[in-house]
Amino acid sequence: MITVKNATKSFVLHNQGGAVIPVMANGNLTVNPGECVGLTGASGAGKSTLMRMIYGNYLTQSGEIRVGDLNVAQAEPREILQMRKHTLGYVSQFLRVVPRVPTLNVVAEPLLQLGTPRDAAMERASELLSLLRIPERLWDLSPLTFSGGEQQRVNIARGFAYDYPALLLDEPTASLDGRNRETVLGLIETAKARGTAIVGIFHDEAARKQVCTREIDVIEFAPKAAA
Amino acid sequence: MSDYNFAYLDEQTKRMIRRAILKGLAIPGYQVPFASREMPMPYGWGTGGVQVTAACLTPDDTLKVIDQGADDTTNAVSIRRFFEKTAAINVTQATSDATVIQTRHRIPEEPLNEDQILVYQVPIPEPLRFLEPRETETRKMHALEEYGLMHVKLFEDISQHGQIATAYAYPVKVEGRYVMDPSPIPRFDNPKMEMAAIQLFGAGREQRIYAIPPYTQVVSLDFDDYPFEASKAEGACALCAADHTYLDEVIVDDDGGRMFVCSDTDYCESRRQAGHIGEQGTPYGKDAA
Amino acid sequence: MTPLLDVQNLSKNYGQRIGCKDVSFDLYPGEVMGIVGESGSGKSTLLNCLAGHLEPDHGKVLFDTKTDGLKDTVTMSEPERRMLGRTDWAFVHQHARDGLRMGVSAGGNVGERLMAVGARHYGNIRAQAADWLGRVEIREDRIDDRPTAFSGGMQQRLQIARNLVTGPRLVFMDEPTGGLDVSVQARLLDMIRELVRDLELSAIIVTHDLAVVRLLADRLMVMKDGHVVETGLTDQVLDDPQHSYSQLLVSSVLQV
User: For labelling, which of A179, B152, B159, C173 has a CA lying 20 to 30 Å from the CA of A217?
Assistant: First the structure.
């Protein structure tokens, strides 16, 4: 479902003397449907970078990144937008939403984008919010007013609202308490069972061991010091 | 005779104005620019109408001048005298006797015929002006027949007053093409604009002439659910009992006493001559009012 | 699928000075594109060329017209272009007073476009105006008030209602949230986003506010000195800018 072949990435800082910072030299990764691959490696090793490259958020200099049939590394913006809408979900560490929009709408948004009838989308959103223990009295408020843990759960609810064939999870259990952590891991297991291809970053080692079918250390992709 | 050229204006100027008139007749409702001259009267006193009249007059013409329906107000008298002096033509107060009628704010009650010309004095010829101040833009709107804005004005009327409150200078569409300001005649007169006589409109300060040829379609703009109505004050003329004419309200004393009389003085007088007597009227020739 | 708008090599000079140069892009139905750049970068010139307010010196602006398919709006007749301006296009000005008739009631402002395309039933026009006021969260009892009695945010929402009432397919927006309070901005952004999604509008939004494009635009075009220096997915351009100017622009935003 997700294939990364010889992907390279470097940042060029034009405003700092044109400094070139290579961050990835030889990214290779294959994720099959129903698999959950955990990315490991020290902070700054490039886990999130790889994830962002797969999502099309970072440009890939060379190599190939396939999500389904689409080569993200060379795709047109609108193809990537279609991919994000239909194929690839992403739960990031940060919640970025329009201020003032009620939590319920934030979670239902991916479904509404796909043209799901409003009632059905809202019902699915309520389901997830209940599951993740966001008190119903908060649903009409903007998640921007929430605590870190609550925001994280809203983000997860949003990511799981639609059953994407592929999913990227960046620290989904980070600031969660025990019960919610279990719920999220349960969601991941369900998705796997459904055949979703998942790439995840978990600092929480126990969680990683529990849901990941494989682990890949991104240090393998790091550019050699000489480069 | 006088030392003036016939009808005051020089021949070249009259030719220039006639060309503008002909063009206006060829494109009914279209505002033709013309080089308006200084006239020996202030703007707003009918300089546009006077120039059009001057260009139309021949020595055989008989002129009638109406101001708000009346022949005997300052403006009407002045203009009549002006042409008597500069063109030595016959003048009249009787609508049926006139060949050229210059008017301000009214169309005579008596239907006009094919041998007559009605000349209107126009203060602001551009019907779109109040909503669109840019001349370049209004010209383009006319050219492209973009007249939605005209209805915005009527829409505002209904919103604010519950009905179309525009009582005079009520916009019309001429021959299905140009939207035109009929000059500040009461909307009661609008239906009369489909007539046998030639109608010419002169705006001196704004330097525009436009025209409606005889028997041209003139439609007052309206909404499907708020159709145009030619309204007038309720009641009948206090002097001649006419209930089908446009009435002026006249305050007769300091206690708010009032009466309604025909605004068209010539029409009222001829009715009284024919024996019609209103509530406050006396048989013709016997009153001193 | 045909693009709604296909812009090819569009250039506009003001004498020797470059307004915009060799701009090409396409826009598909339902897409929102942001154009960012500093003042004088040519983004407003570009927008005005696209919307038919300015005549470009070179280039084509092909629009997918309902009747004839793709047609160059630069060379089409003026009546046809102005008709598009009243039906298929909408233009939201930065200053509401430029896009509203300040002497006409809110209802009249919204109704104008309907009357411009031939609506002649007062009751229907008023009902539609009231409906649209509701959709932009203006209370119906304000329908007879003039925009002069409205706050800045309300004026902007009224302008949007006035523009969308005829069901356009392409909306041009010039700094739609400029000059508004932040709280008012947020509300407006949310509204624009919902309208764009619900009505499947395409939009081109010119702004210098990167936060606005991040929330509204799918794609982004960065302009400098009349040239397009970078294009791409909005979040990609903002998070991984390639051109030195884009990097400068992104790094210059103050963090809250």
Answer: A179
| CATH 3.40.50.11310 domain range(s) in chain B | 11-220
Structure tokens at A208: 């990683």
| C211 in contact with chain A, both atoms CB, cutoff 8 A | no
Count CA atoms closer than 13 A to B91's CA, side-chain side. 21
Provide the 10 A C-beta neighbour count for residue A133.
13
Question: In this structure, what token pair is assigned to residue A222?
Answer: 């790091």
A110: which chain C residues are within 8 Å (Cβ-Cβ)? none
Q: How many CB pairs under 8 A join A and C?
A: 56
The CATH code of domain B11-220 reads 3.40.50.11310
Question: With an 8 Å Cβ cutoff, are C144 and B159 in contact?
Answer: yes
The answer to whether B256 faces chain C, any CB pair under 8 Å, is: no
Q: Greatest CA separation found in chain C? A: 56
Helix (H) or strand (E) holding A154: helix A148-161
Query: What are A33's two structure tokens?
Result: 């449907």
Per DSSP bridges, beta strands C202-206 and B198-203 are: unpaired
Cβ–Cβ gap C236/A112 under 8 Å = no
A200-219: pLDDT as tens digits: 999 888 889 999 999 999 88
Active site residues per annotation of B: 29, 237, 240, 262, 268
B:C CB pairs within 8 Å: 56
**C49 three-class SS:** helix
Which residue(s) pair with A169 in the sheet? A91, A200
ipTM of the complex model: 0.87
For chain A, the domains span 31-59+74-221
Q: What is the mean pLDDT of residues C87-98?
A: 93
Q: Which residues of A173-199 are buried (b: 16+ CB within 10 A; e: fewer)?
A: bbebeeebbebbbebbeebbeeebbbb
- Give pLDDT tens digits for C212-223: 898 889 999 999
Tell me which CATH homologous superfamily contains domain A31-59+74-221.
Answer: P-loop containing nucleotide triphosphate hydrolases (3.40.50.300)
